[in-house]
Amino acid sequence: MIGDFATRLSCGLIRLDPLLLNTGDERAAVYALRILLAMTGGIAFLPDQARSEALFGRLRAGFLCATLSRTVVDSRRSGIFLRREARGLPAAATLTGSTLWDGRRRITLNDSSSALLIAPLGTAAAKRLATGQGKAPPSLMRAALAAEPALWHAGECLGLPGYELKSAMVEVRPVVSPFARFLPSFDLAPAQAVAGLIGAAPVPPLPFSGHSAG
Length: 214
Description:
Largest sheet: 5 strands, antiparallel
Number of strands: 12
Strand content: 25-35%
Shape: globular
Distance between the termini: 22 Å
Order of helices and strands: HEEHHEEEEEEEHHEEEH
């Protein structure tokens, strides 16, 4: 279901087809929404079932802008957009070795000779990026990019690794946060779908044939 109704538009911005709200299988649709909310917000656990069902019902009732599991849900005529909210982002920190940033990005420093800081791009820097790609409202793309990890040096923003900044010094890989530590066999298919959606590392196969956490 995730592969059928979710599209990655840019760093940190997911679009859901409104048809997800009327698939005829509400239980599966709500579960897909919970996974995407946790992944977008960098949360290790899926949001509460009752609150997720309430949000799903509100999405069906009309357009809205709400927040759940650190994820902004912005429903418009052009689609349902998910992005990380601006609150609670990590403070600027020296980049060393390999770091799991905000539960969403695995950042690896390949050149230890550079004194770099990792911090959110921020609204001001995001406004300078070219976001008029026609895939989503520019304001949404800027808001999503503002919450992404950027490299900073001596108070100057060097850019977003892998987006506008192509550098061998730093590697940034998306992380499927709800399945990063524990992946039961019944979640293997949605985990693979989300990994493909955001360009994360492929989910490894199960260690034993027929193995189930249940």
